[in-house]
Amino acid sequence: MDKFIIKGGRRLEGEVTISGAKNAAVAILPAVILSDEPCVIENVPYISDVRICIKILREMGAEVTSLGKDTYRIDPTTINKFCVPYEYARKMRASYYFLGALLGKYNKARVSMPGGCPLGDRPIDQHLKAFTAIGAKYTLSQGMIDLTADKLSGNQIFFDVVTVGATMNAMLAAVKAEGLTVIENAAKEPHIVDLANFLNSMGANIMGAGTDVIKIRGVEHLHGATYAVIPDQIEAGTFMVAVAATKGDVLIKNVIPKHLESITKKLEKIGVNIEQFDDSIRVWVDGPLVKTDVKTAPHPGFPTDMQSQIATLLCLAEGTSIITENIWEQRFRYVDELRRMGADITVNGKVALIEGTGKLMGAPVKACDLRAGAALIIAGLAASGVTEIEDIFHIERGYDCMEGKLRALGADIEKVSVPDKAEEKPENDKAAV
Ligand code: EPU
C-alpha cells in the first residue's frame, strides 16, 4: 500500500504541464472498438483508469501497442470477446462505455455493473433508456448487464437528468444505428465534445455536441483515425487551487482556458490572480483570500469534480463560505478528514458551511475518493507540519504523476510504500514466525 507524505508550507512556483483528460480518455479508448481499422490515440494520461481500459481492450482481443509515453495504437479488428468481467468493472465506473461501444459495433455486449468512486447512488437507468430507445433489449443477472439487438435504429432519446455517462453511451451506441438519433437534455461537458470530435474524425455524423440537443445520423462504417485527447480540465483546476492554497505563482500549460471559465471566475472572486494565454494560464496570489459561495452544476456550471478542492481553499480564506453540492449526495465524505487537519466545516445534507480559519495543520488522513484525495493533497501542501495520506490508489485513478509534477513545482511530497496491515507480522510474536 502506498501513501503520500507531504511537508507543508512551501509555495508552488514554476511551470506544470497538464495531461490528457481522464473522463475523455476513458470513453475514447472504448470508442475505438467502433472503428473498422486501427486508430492512434495521443495525449492519453498515465492513470490507473486508463490502464484498466487498455487491459479490457486487450482481454477482448484488440491489439494495443504503446507508441511512447502517452500514445497508443489500437487495432480493434481482432476483437473476439464482447464481455467486461467484474474484476475490471468493479475498479472503474467508466467500464460502462464498453456497453455502448460493443452494442454499437456488434449489436451485443456483456458488462459487469460498474464500480468507481463511492459517491452515493449511481444508477444507470438513463443509459439503459438510451439503449432500448434505439432497439436494444437488456437483462440484468448476477451483476452482469447483457445487451442484444437484432438491429439498431435511430430514435428520440430524452434524458430525465443531465448525465455525462448516458449522453456519451448514447452517442457510442447510436453512431452506426440506421437513421437519425436525437438526444435531448444532453450533457455539455468538454469531454462530450471531445468524444463527438473523435467519432466524427472516424467518419461519424454527429452534430450539436456541446449543446443540449445532439443529432446523430447513423453511418455504416467508421475508419481509422489519429486523435489527441483534450487536456484535463479537472487536473488543471486542481493545480490552480493548489497554487492558490500555497500562495504560489505557476504557469499551467496545455490547457483550454475556455474549459476552465467557471473555475477561473470562482478563484478570481476568492482573490486569486489569473492571466489567460492561448493554451496556458498563469495563476498567482499576492493578497488575502476571501470567502465565496459555490454551487456545483453540470457544465458550464461549477464542476462537482472541483468541489472538494475549492472547499479546501475556502478553509484557508477569510470569512464564511457556503458550498452546495447538486450532483453527488456523498461528495462531502472528505470533510471528516479535513476536520482532522483543523478545518471548521459543518455539513447539512447537500450544503456545507465553511468557516475560514486561514490555516490547516498536518495530520494522518485517508483519501475516500479521487477528488477527496486531491483536496487532501492541497490541504497538506498548505498546512503547517506533516500530512500523511493513505489510500492514494484513489488519486492514481485520475491524476497522472501528481507527486512528480508537484515536486517539480517545489512541493515537499513523496510517495512511500508501507506494508499492507494484513501482511504485517507482529514483532516477537512466536506464533507468526
Ligand atoms: N444519473 C441517473 N441515472 C443515470 C445516470 C446518472 O440518475 O443513468 C444521475 C446520477 O446519479 C447523478 C447525475 O445523474 O446524480 C449525474 O451523473 P452523470 O451520469 O453525469 O455522472 P457519470 O457519467 O457517472 C461523470 C464523471 C464523474 C463526474 C460526473 C459529473 C466519468 C467517468 N465520470 O460521471 O467524474 O463527477 O460525470 O460531472 O466521466 C471524477 O472524475 O472524479 C468523477 C466522479
Automatic annotation (TrEMBL):
Family annotation (Pfam families): EPSP_synthase
Residues in Enolpyruvate transferase domain copies: 7-406
This enzyme's EC code(s): 2.5.1.7
Active site residues of this protein: 117
Annotated phosphoenolpyruvate binding sites: 22-23
Gene Ontology BP annotations: cell division; cell wall organization; peptidoglycan biosynthetic process; regulation of cell shape; UDP-N-acetylgalactosamine biosynthetic process
Enzyme class of the recorded protein, top EC level: transferase
Catalysed reactions listed for this entry: phosphoenolpyruvate + UDP-N-acetyl-alpha-D-glucosamine = UDP-N-acetyl-3-O-(1-carboxyvinyl)-alpha-D-glucosamine + phosphate
Any GO molecular function: UDP-N-acetylglucosamine 1-carboxyvinyltransferase activity
Gene3D superfamilies hit by this protein: Enolpyruvate transferase domain (3.65.10.10)
Subcellular location: Cytoplasm
InterPro entries named among the record's database cross-references: Enolpyruvate_Tfrase_dom, Enolpyruvate_Tfrase_sf, MurA_subfamily, RNA3'P_cycl/enolpyr_Trfase_a/b, UDP_GlcNAc_COvinyl_MurA
Keyword line: Cell cycle, Cell division, Cell shape, Cell wall biogenesis/degradation, Cytoplasm, Peptidoglycan synthesis, Pyruvate, Transferase
Binding of UDP-N-acetyl-alpha-D-glucosamine, residues: 93, 122-126, 305, 327
Keyword Cell cycle listed: yes
Function, as annotated: Cell wall formation. Adds enolpyruvyl to UDP-N-acetylglucosamine.
Family: Belongs to the EPSP synthase family. MurA subfamily.
Protein name: UDP-N-acetylglucosamine 1-carboxyvinyltransferase
Species of provenance: Ruminococcus flavefaciens 007c
Name of the gene: murA
